[in-house]
Amino acid sequence: MKRFAALIDRLVYTRSRNSKLALIVDYLRHTPDPDRGWAIAALTESLDFPAVKAGTVRALLATRIDEQLFRLSRHFVGDTAETAALLWPDAAGPKADLGVTEAVEALSAATRSDAPAILAALLDRLDADGRYALLKLALGGMRVGVSARLAKQAFAQAFAVPVDDVEELWHAIPPPYAPLFAWGEGRAPRPDLADVAFFRPFMLAHPLEEESIDLADYAAEWKWDGIRVQIVRGGSETRIYSRGGEEISGAFPELVAAFDQDAVIDGELLVRGDVQGGEAASFNALQQRLGRKTVSKKMLADYPAFVRVYDLLAVDGNDLRALPWTDRRRQLEAFVPRLADSHFDLSQVIDATDFDDLAERRAGARDAAIEGVMLKRRDAPYVAGRRAGLWYKWKRDPLVADCVMMYAQRGNGRRASFYSDYTFGCWSDAGELLPVGKAYSGFTDEELKWLDTFVRDNTLNRFGPVREVEKTLVLEVAFDSIHASKRHKSGLAMRFPRISRIRRDKPAEEADRIATLRAMVT
Amino acid sequence: MAQAKTWIEPHSGGIYVKPADLWIDPSRPVERAAVTHGHADHARSGHGAVFATPETLAIMALRYGVDTEASHNQAFVYGDGFERGGVRFSFHPAGHVLGSAQILMEYAGERIVVTGDYKRRPDPTCAPFEVVPCDIFVTEATFGLPVFRHPPTSGEIAKLIGAVRAEPDRSVLVGAYALGKAQRVIAELRGAGWDAPIFIHGALDRMCALYAMHGVDLGELRLVSEADKGEMAGQIVLAPPSALNDRWSRRLPDPVTAMASGWMRVRQRARQRMVELPLVISDHADWDELTTTIAEVNPAESWITHGSEDGLLRWCELTQRKARALHLVGRDLEEEA
User: Fold this and answer.
1) Percent of residues, chain A, with pLDDT higher than 70
2) Which residues of A touch B149 (CB under 8 A)?
């Protein structure tokens, strides 16, 4: 754990991407299997120990330290793992170093009931830096600025292999990636993926910034407000991956069962609804199905999921990714009828005559499941990541409302010392301010400093980490949509709210009314 | 015994001692001020009369133009003091920075100690903290959370020297507060055997000279502004924290950014400051020092101020000690911690 702890520590304090890369390259070259595989999996958030969660750590700490002191410390530090690492008392006597692999094995074997004891025994063998590394490995949330992409590049650089190969193999081989290292070091051939339902990295879009775009070069489709999925059938297995390459098959068993063709598709997972004549319900409905390991019959019946397919990456053993969009689209249109129409349909191309026509249709789209428009270059192959000029997303203009700041809370991580999470409200008919949402983005660093000072200077009450402030500051809040919700007293919930402007010029009485927001509900 | 609450009043702008018509560490100009130490959140300009240790007065003269010769400003060495309005004031070492003092007040059979800022671990630049028994102990709480346990200073100094030696083509730029921290880091380096010249930012120059005048040996110091870029390679450079990510640092050879502060114990805090080499060196008591001190002083009541009052307050509650938090304003000068 010493080497791994030192790596994490140096990554935390290293700013430049190249220096980070050099640190990981060095670690991968000089650390034996399987330690290095587990370490890189931890850095890229690819480990999961179901029996060890932040709650486990909090409960364990409660046996060693007063809960209130833990809570105060946690609010200050802004990170559960670091707080626990600092608070855990150093065990007396010499410590046998704990290997990364030994730690992973112990944590994997843990059950909910013996996890606290196992974790305690591991913590007792480490110093504060080692405890930090162990808890980060166990809980995830490294915050060392190492993306999966960077890790793959480090691997490619460490062993002088093409990064595109690494990218593809990475998702097909589980940690600790022994066959990958064997291939990288020339001890084994490139692993064969023919019978594996592996994830292909998604092609991503840039926001559209051009004034206009020629539809002769780009095809337009609706951008659906669901979640991006890739469904892969390989060997005799079907898997569903989310945008980050995380497998979510367990949450959508009906889709796994219905996808019976040898193919790889890219599409939007939506929940069927009867909203405004469209086929899809709002994102709000889809949220009911997300993040579940298993689903009940009632869930399946109440929130039936389907996929609106917009790309075909492979079919009948042929990889189509190198083909231009036009050719893939033609094959896609021929392919979709092979799937059950109860669970799959084709995302239609918008037959706009020109860009102005498209802009008009985009502005007029009121379907709750439409988030905007996608523009895809007709001659572009399907490539991993975000490449300039190939795909654009052109979101619908956000809705905005003027709200009043009511409460503020300290942020996490780098923002632990700033009041950066704001709860804001609008006026009820009775003239009462009711919370309508919470936002923690949209402002610049300079604005954050200003907001933080405003909170400190205008505190009315302190409730632990939360401060109630004078109801004087108007925040213009942008949001993608707004829905009815029983969770809030105002009966409303915003989707993706962010602070768009600080309206120091506007008196709080002139902020928007709840009734105005209710009229925007989709 | 008198009731302290009748003769001493904590206000947001300082502590007012009623019978003496005098303020301790007031944040606004007042007629009479007793000052614990020279940091800006305790010492201000514009008071009618200042009562402090000779070193603190000298620091206030240097920083805020306080006239040390004027007869209304009075200096008292440790153990010494004065009487006013029936209150006996005396100054006792706090171990925070040069000249830092706890102020003991005795009135009608009651003893109150205001610590100002303090620490318990050895510091070659100032007199060590003395435990002064009292009924009410007004303690700071900058690091009043159990996550703050400063490691031994020698280990941090070794880390610094190791970093310089590891990259002889680069300099290591240490951000250290201009009063106290900078001189302590230099003195600790000298104690660890680092006898090369240490390069300093112009803003540290006069305070280092003041320390030297008071008998603190800092060895050979050279101004960055008068040095060639090349000769600072493989050397240690000190600057106030504000200069770390400033254009000023461009005159150094590819500097490694370090910072000496108790806040460096928390990784994300160090990241916020864009620090590459965090050094946990503090002039404030850490959690163990704070709690040990309260236990040793063992007052009837503790008043807790500037910092994480909530944490220390909770500890007092858990150990069945009477305590309250004072919310003084303008006491969050994080730079010098």
Assistant:
1) 97
2) 86
Whole-number mean pLDDT of chain A?
89
Chain B residue nearest residue A72, CA to CA: B311
Judged by CB atoms closer than 8 Å, whether chains meet at B147 and A73 is answered as: yes
Give residue A50's domain range.
2-139
A285-335 tens-digit pLDDT? 777 787 777 788 888 888 889 999 999 999 998 999 999 999 999 999 999
Instruction: State whether residue A82 sits within 8 Å of chain B by CB.
Output: yes
Q: Which residues of B touch A (CB under 8 A)?
A: 145-147, 149, 265-272, 274-278, 308, 310-311, 314-315, 318
Single out the residue in A395, A429, A449 at which a domain terminates: A395
The encoded tokens of residue A164 equal: 């595109």
Question: pLDDT, tens digit, for every residue of A177-207?
Answer: 999 999 999 999 999 887 888 889 899 999 8
A366 with A456, same domain: the answer is: no
Residue A364 shares a structural domain with residue A504: no
pLDDT, residue A485, reads: 81
pLDDT for B99: 98
Nearest-CB residue to B274 (from A15, A79, A416): A15
What is the reported pLDDT for A163? 87
Angle between helices A35-43 and A17-30 (to 10 degrees): 160
How many domains does the structure of chain A reveal? Answer: 3
Lowest mean pLDDT among B40-49, B150-159, B219-228: B40-49
Told to judge if A223 belongs to the known catalytic residues of this protein, a careful annotator would answer yes
Give pLDDT, residue B66. 87
Q: Domain of A374: which CATH number?
A: 3.30.470.30
Q: Are A231 and A261 in contact (CB under 8 A)?
A: no
Using alpha carbons only, how large is chain A's radius of gyration in Å? 25
Q: What's the CA dihedral at A98, A101, A105, A106 to 10 degrees?
A: 10
Would you call A78 and B268 a contact, using CB atoms and an 8 Å cutoff?
A: yes
Determine which of B267, B272, B314 to mutate to test the interface with A (most A C-beta atoms within 10 Å).
B267
A13 touches B: beta carbon within 8 Å: yes
Strands (E) in A5-44, as ranges, are none
Chain A residues close to B272, C-beta within 8 Å: 414, 417
Q: Which of A20, A136, A152, A223 is catalytic?
A: A223
Nearest CA in chain B to A414: B268
What three-state secondary structure class fits B93?
Answer: strand
A492 and A404 share a domain? yes
Q: Are residues A367 and A431 in the same domain?
A: no
**How distant is the Cα of A515 from the closest Cα of chain B, in angstroms?**
41
| Strand pairing class (A344-346; A237-241) | unpaired
Same domain, A473 and A505: yes
Q: Does A364 share its domain with A510?
A: no
Give CA–CA dist B58/B66, Å, rounded. 8
Question: What does the block give as tokens for B107?
Answer: 């009135």
β-strand partners of B136: B112, B301
